[in-house]
Amino acid sequence: MCGIVGIVGNHDSRNYLLNGLKSLEYRGYDSAGIAIMENQEIKNYRVVGRVHLLDSEIPSLINTSLGIGHTRWATHGAPSKRNCHPHKSNDGLFTIVHNGVIENFQEIKNSLREKGYEFYSDTDTEVIANVLEDEYKKTNSVLDAINNALKIIHGSLAIAIIFKNDSENLYFAKRKSPLLIGVGDKTNYLASDALPMIKTCVKFIDILDNQYGIIGEHDIKIYQDGVKQKAKYTTRNAELLNIDLGGYPHYMLKEIEEIPSCISRLIDNYFINGKYCFNEEMIEKLKTAKCVSFIACGTSYHASLIGKHYMESIGKMSNVYIASEWAYFPKFIDEDEIFILVSQSGETADVITCLKKINEFKTHPTITITNTKGSTLERDATYSALLYAGVEIAVASTKAYNAQVSLLYLLKSAIIDDYNASKKLLDNNILLNNIIERKDEIKEIANKVKDAHNAFFLGRGLDYFVAMEGSLKLKEISYIHSEAFPGGELKHGPIALIEENTPVFGFISNKDIALAIRGNFSEVKARKAIVYSFVTKENAISTDTFVMDDFDPDLSILGSVMTSQYLSYYVALLRGNDIDKPRNLAKSVTVE
Ligand code: F6R
C-alpha cells in the first residue's frame, strides 16, 4: 500500500507534492512526509496522521526543483514519527520513499549492522536506503548501486530516491508495486498512479518490474540489469479528471449515487448497435470453457460469487477463490478452465500473485475485470474488460461492485447470445433510482441501529451473497462487529450470539426462498433480535422494513446491495466516523 510521489523541474513542487499525496491518501493515511532538495541540502518534513498536517510543517515558499513524498499504510513499525518516510541512509547520501514490502529486510539489516550501519526506525525502507549507500560506496555510481540493490533486496518496491550529490535528478526503481512517470513541460513527475499527475500530464510511462532509472527535467532514462530500456508510453482515462466531490459531503455517497450512470456507461461501451463488443476471442474462449474460475478479494470476491451464479445458470462449472488462499493452494480443475480475476484497482497484490502463477503454467487463459486501465492485472492477463466506473475514491467500494456484477451479467449474456441483457440492466436502473430517491428511509433505519455492538446479515441463495457484502461494508466503515450467514445456518451455532435488540438485516429478492428465510427471521425475533427486512414487492408482507420494486432476482440484488451501502454510509455518518478513510484500511492493497 502507501502512495509515493516525486517531481523534478520548474513546476510548483510544494503544490504538486502536497496535492499529489492528498490524491494518493486512499492508499494509506497513517503518516506522511516530504523531502526536498533546497540549496544543495535535503530537507525532510514528516508528520504522523493525514497529509494536510504537512501543510503547516513546510514553509510556504520553498526553493526547490526536486522533491519526493509519501503517504503511509504501516506494514513494518507503528505509525510514529520515527517510522514516517522519507528515510535516509546513515551518511545521508540517499533519501527515499517506498511502497512495498521487503521480505528479507531483517537478514539484510543484520548484515548491515555487522558492517557498522545503525538503524533509527522499525521500517524495511530504511534498509533499502542503507543498501543503496553501501553499494554506492563500492561502485561510485547511483545507477549501479540501484541495480545491485535490486538483486540484494527481495520483495516488492516502488521507490523514489534523492541522491545528496545530485540536485538535478530523481532516481527510481520498481518491482511488483506500481510506479508511473508523468511527462510534463520542463518538469517530470513520478507517482504510484496517475491521479496526482492527471491535471498536468497527458503522456505517461509505465515502469515495469525490475526497471530503474533517472529522471531529469528534460530527460528520462530507464534501465534493467544495466541495459537501457525503451520507454513504454501510455495515456490515461479522461474519467480520472472527475475526482471532485461535486457537492456531495463524501465520496462514498457520491459513488453510490453514480451507480445507475456507471451501468449505463458499461452498456455504452460493451453493447453497441444491438451487438456485444467484447474482445471476440475472449468470448469464444468463454464459450468453449468448461469451467470458469474467479479469483478476487473482499468486495470483488463478493461480486465474483454472483458471477459464479451467472456462469452456473448457463451450464458452466464455476468456482470462486479468495486470492490470498488460491495463491498458496492453487487449484486447476479442468484443461478447459478459464480464470477471471476481478479487481477494482487492478493492483491487489494477492490477485497479482495468482495471475503470475497461472501465467507461469502457460496453460490457462485469464481475463481481468478491473476499473483501472494500465494496471498490473490489466496488463498481464490474456484479456481484460474495463469497468468504466470512473475513479472510486472512497475506501469502501460501492459503484465498482455494482459495475463488476453488471459486467459479469453482460458477459454471461454474451456467452449465450442473449441480446436482452442491456435492456434488462437499464430497466433495473429504475429500481436503483427509486432507492436513491428513498435514501432518507434508510437513514431512519440507520438511526435505529447506530449504537449496536453486533449486527447480523441474513440471506439465502443470491441474497446470502448480498448479505456478505452488506456485512463487510457495515463493519469496515461503522466499526460495528457484523457477520453474514445463510439463513439456514443460524441454528447450527451463530444463533447463540443473538441477544435482545441485536439488529438482524435480512434480504429477500427471490420467492423460492422467501418462506424459508422468513422462518429464520422468526427464530431470531423469538430471541428478541430486531429484524430489518429489505424485500422486493412480490415477496413483501406488511411488517417488512424496506420494500423495493420487483425485478429479475439476478439483477434486483444490485438494488439490495445498494440499500446495504446506504445503510453502512448512514450508520457511519451518525457515529461520526471518517467515512471515506476508515481506520486501518487502504483502498489499494498492494502488499500480500
Ligand atoms: C471493501 C473493499 C475491499 C476491496 C478488496 C479488493 O469495501 O474495498 O474489500 O474490495 O481490497 O480490492 P480490489 O477490488 O481493488 O482488488
Any idea what the radius of gyration is?
25 Å
Number of strands: 27
Low-confidence stretches: none
Mean residue pLDDT:
94
What kind of sheet is the major sheet? 8 strands, antiparallel
Walk me through what this model shows.
The protein is of the alpha/beta class. It is built from 18 helices and 27 strands. The strands form five sheets. An eight-stranded antiparallel sheet has the order 3-2-4-1-10-9-11-15, covered by helices on one side. The longest helix has 22 residues, at 553-574. It is globular. The structure holds fructose -6-phosphate (F6R). Fructose -6-phosphate (F6R) is lined by residues 297-300, 343-345, 348, 351, 396-397, 472, 476, 589.
Please name the defining characteristics of this protein.
592 residues; seven-stranded antiparallel β-sheet; alpha/beta; binds fructose -6-phosphate; globular; eight-stranded antiparallel β-sheet
